[in-house]
Amino acid sequence: MQGMPYPWMVQQQQAGRQLCLILDGGGEECQALSAARDLSRYCSLYSQTAVAELAKTGPVILLLEDLAEPGLTQLLQKPETNWGWLGSLLNDDLTDVTRHWRERMLVGEPGRQALYRFQDNRTLARVLTYLPAEQWPVFLGPLVSVCYWHDDGWCCRDNPAPGNYPVPDPAPWSQVPNPQAAAILHANILRYLLAEHSEALAALVEFQDPRIWLTQVLEQAHAWQWCGPQQLEFLVVRRLEEATRSSVIQWQPMKGETPVEHYERVVEQWRREGAEHV
């Protein structure tokens, strides 16, 4: 569906459905749209949850009626800012859809959970592209249809079976690969090194581009299957020390070693080396 999504919105209204908008909170447009509604017409999805302190900047769901509303028009004119997406419901009761997304706002194991950015149109697009259509209902829940910006155009998808569904374990949408994951990890590690190992990083800059160096280290981690946070931290920090100081660690895996055995042997070797120099 190319162009502005008005034909989709009109179609949904003509079918007797209620239009809604799911978008990031905190922006001027979101504040203006929220201020124009009473409490029954919008909801902050983080409020009354474990992350209620983030409610002011968290995602919001708003009911739409006037397709010419200035705040809505402004958003639709700049979809490339990835502000969120549009949906339709069978009625104007936000209870079910609010509960649905609150149950899906966290992903990961207890104690290591992260906020899931379901309000991001790029996230929505990845899920609906990756998952087969028969799995869409458990992700979209009460939403009858959705319309979102993706790859320089508007897309719309219909939910095959709108309704209320429990969160499956594991949640299929949490398994969807993120093409930006590598770039995000790369940037986060550089920020960590700058904050915690700034002197070593400054020494590295004198003779090598840290970005190229880190790319090579992460390629090594992938090849060795050292993907856990502890393994990555050890490899990056020790490699940085090696690049800027003397080191005699035998990094390469030995014949027949599993990734875990390889990691444990290298850590033990590093500990012995450290003890000898104390």
Automatic annotation (TrEMBL):
Q: Where is the DUF4123 domain?
A: 31-136
Q: Which domain of life is it from?
A: Bacteria
> Pfam families under this entry?
DUF4123
The protein in question is named DUF4123 domain-containing protein
